[in-house]
Amino acid sequence: MSLQSPPAAAAAADPPSPALPPGAELSRGGADPPAAAEDGEGEGEEEEEEEGEKETEREKLPPIQAASSAAAGGLERGAKNQFSTFSNFITTINQKKESTGSRSPPTQLVIPNIKNVRDLPPICLDVRQKQRISIDTLPQELKAPIPPEPSLPIRTKTVKDFQDDMEKAKSSGDWKAVHDFYSTSFDSFLEINAAFKKDANFPFNTIEDSGINAKFVNVVYDALLNTPQDVQKSVLKGIINGLLQEWKGPRTKDDLRAYCILLQNPQFSNTSTYVIYAHLLRQIAALTEADHHFLVHWSKKISQRRFKQLVDRLLQFISLRLFPAKPEEFPPMMKCTWWIPSATKVLALFNAANSLSNPPVISYTDFYNSTLDHIDLMEEYHNWQCYGNSHRFSFCQYPFIISIAAKKVIIQRDSEQQMISIARQSLVDKVSRRQKPDMNMLFLNVKVRRTHLVSDSLDELARKRADLKKKLKVTFVGEAGLDMGGLTKEWFLLLIRQIFHPDYGMFTYHKDSHCHWFSSFKCDNYSEFRLVGALMGLAVYNSITLDIRFPPCCYKKLLSPPIVPCDHNTLVGICDVALEDLVQIMPELAHGLSELLSYEGNVEEDFYSTFQVFQEEFGVIKSYNLKPNGDKIPVTNQNRKEYVQLYVDFLLNKSIYKQFAAFYYGFHSVCASYALLLLRPEEVEILVCGSPELDMSALQRSTQYEGYQKTDLTIRYFWDVVLGFSLDLQKKLLHFATGSDRVPVGGMADLNFKISKSETSTNWLPVAHTCFNQLCLPPYKNKKELKQKLIIGISNAEGFGLE
Asked: Which residues form a coiled coil (predicted)?
């Protein structure tokens, strides 16, 4: 999978006109990037005339707004008439080019068919591949021809020289030296490299070093917003010159450096510069995958603060194009359908750079664009399902930009549609057989006995496998009552508690990491692991948050692959694992293996180990070879890395393969959906278990009351105490009242938390009904008593009673 060029993404909406002169698309917002070059005889006089007219017309650039808000992170929005002036300016230039081009036919640059380039970093996902793709690097030695770099002008200005010029300009009011520097440095891609390249005579054509003098770039850009408007205008005029350059052949590394530098321009935070910014993004998006490869690796070297600024600027650009505060500020959407695809593809490069960094430069959640929560997500999803990564753009091609809340909406609606479809089919089958319809056929009805909870649940889910995608309703045999959500949650709570109990033997609880992991004990039937997987799937499907503690590695395996393979012989639940994954489960063992890797002595003589591991199973010690004849291969200083890797792979993949495969198939028997392709492992965990981020103030705002008013003294005492709790006590309170110390994806409001008045003695402790997220609170007389009783209750409660 690869980035697609903007022309493909927008072809259906705005086809290019073959009669347009080179560069004319820049003013009309067409689908094709400016990609023509002049090549002919007898053009010297015309060029001189054209250059003279260009200089005259460029003076018509609109004034740039003063940078009064620089400290706030960007310029203020410009006046709406600035765009008409800019468009006229570009149109005039293009007309001059047309007159020149009419006598000298341009040579069109053919953008390579990016989809056919092999070994590309997969920036987006394709539903047709039926598997999750991780971001990989291209080979370091690319077999692409490297065009010769043109010789650069000699520029000797240093950071100190520039800072001295700025100080003199501020004190004297004479900005000529600063103006000359900016106008010269940004006049062309060649000049940008002359000013900001570390060494003009060194090629810097590797991914390890971009050759950019980052300190100088940062100082120049930090000062730019504090310069007069004519200085800022000169920078934009230079950028326009660079973007109007007509290219012959592939881009050089100097061109890529210029793109990398221009992307960091803080002027692009101002909406009045968005037309220029859009064309910069289009040219970058249309680069070859080999060029993208360099930009991705160079971007990793940008500082965290500036990297986030770049990402935020792109997200703001997308948001304001989708929902402009002043629509008249921008060209009509039909004329610039390529704006959003281009910006999203450039954002994908930064996401790739972030994913390749260890640790990531910024959190993956910093790429979320919450504005997308307000568009028709299901239309985006259906377009993606129907067209995949073809010429039709969809945000689902770039799932990193879609927030977890938006993804939850997609999954829920997709689930509801599947539920309705299956229920409708059941109804049609019933009617076609001339049988009386029964409303129960529209639900997954689970009837269990409390005394045989696991076995009954296993039997019910196995027998009603075809109904798993219907709405769940639970009945406890011998108990009256309708399931309005409380019985379903109680069933989940009881079942999870029983299955994950250490005595049950299915999972091992590791105290050091506070998480469960699959028992490696062999058995004849792994159906109970399938039941746990189905439970997790049902929880996601029915929007139930489970109190499960699996390590992140589990969710990575659960998406390996995210779509169940058609070939049942294909291995599932196997993913690349490393020592970092083992740390999250067995930190002590991981520490020991890490010590082995860093041991400076003779590993073979001092450790006397072989490629063999031992495990105790039901009191019997069993040995397993990590590789053929592993018991005869000693671990040495030379092969210890291989030993550690094989050991970790054995613990997290091979030794529990059958258990996890059953768990995998159970989960996907309920959640089989292309929507899973949109999810990261961390996001699956949040959907299953909720988010660990607590906001008790938000809980206070959304809490409902029964028998109390929010102004009552007891309630005011309660919130004074809770908001003053430590995070650990707040989690205990949430766990006490809801059965989980995590928050649903929709936030605290989705908990439907209720505080009821308990007409009991104030000597009693608070009581919770976890099935309904309800806290019963006696009317304590003072804050001290309430705090004391509440802490005792939440700190000593376990399950349905005190320890």
From this structure: none
